Amino acid sequence: MSESSLKNVRCPDPFVPLFQQAEKNMEVFFKEMRTAPDQGEITIQGERYILARAATFSIQLQKILEEEYGRLAAEKIVYNLGRAAGTKDAEFFMRKMGLSQGPEALSAGPVHFAHAGWAFVDILEESDPSQDEEYFLLYDHPYSFEADSYLNEKISTNRPVCRMNAGYSSGWCQVAFGIELVAKEISCRARGDAQCRFVMAHPSRINQYTVAMKEKYDL
Question: Which in 8, 102, 103, 135 has the greatest CB count within 10 A?
């Protein structure tokens, strides 16, 4: 693993050049942020963005949905909201930046993720992203807005809470690689673990990889 002047992401050495270019591209994109409170607008290169309190999405939204639909349904809805955002952002940036499907398209995701305030991304060495059902990604989200919200509010939980993080990353990577992907959080700072760690894989492989990584890291 190499730091290699990367500021917004960590990744295995073979991917460093791609992420260096992604950082340059996103730095240019986010430099053009314009705020116009008199019109109720925030734009970046003409694209409308919004600001929202992290706790609104990580805690209050989950609570409201649980009261209405139950815990399991609420968790699925939150995951799918993140997934929809990741899918559409990936489609937009692949077009805007002319990114090729595969690792090049992947590289823009974590950098945009960091600039937009979701989390930092640390892609671990075991990862082997490929354009087939053997795709495997193991990654941490230091500073996850969801975990931080729970910790800041001193809310205890016995399960992982970074569902929008998982959904966003799987949605982005599914578009980037052109294959169906899902993600699961296997450890979470909000419940007292050392890190927010995720496994991403094809649906046919996700349980296999999840079990293997939990055993490997004693989670």
Answer: 135
pLDDT tens sequence across 161-183: 999 999 999 999 999 999 999 99
Residue 40 domain-assigned (yes or no): no
Residue 30 forms part of a structural domain: no
How many Cα atoms sit within 13 Å of 181 on the Cβ side? Answer: 33
C-alpha distances (whole Å) from 115 to each of 19, 163, 185 are 14, 19, 21
Average pLDDT for 80-99: 98
- Tell me the residue type at 126: E
Q: What is the pLDDT of residues 58-83, one digit of tens each?
A: 999 999 999 999 999 999 999 999 99
Residue 31 lies in a domain: no
Provide the residue range defining the domain that includes 123. 16-24+53-216
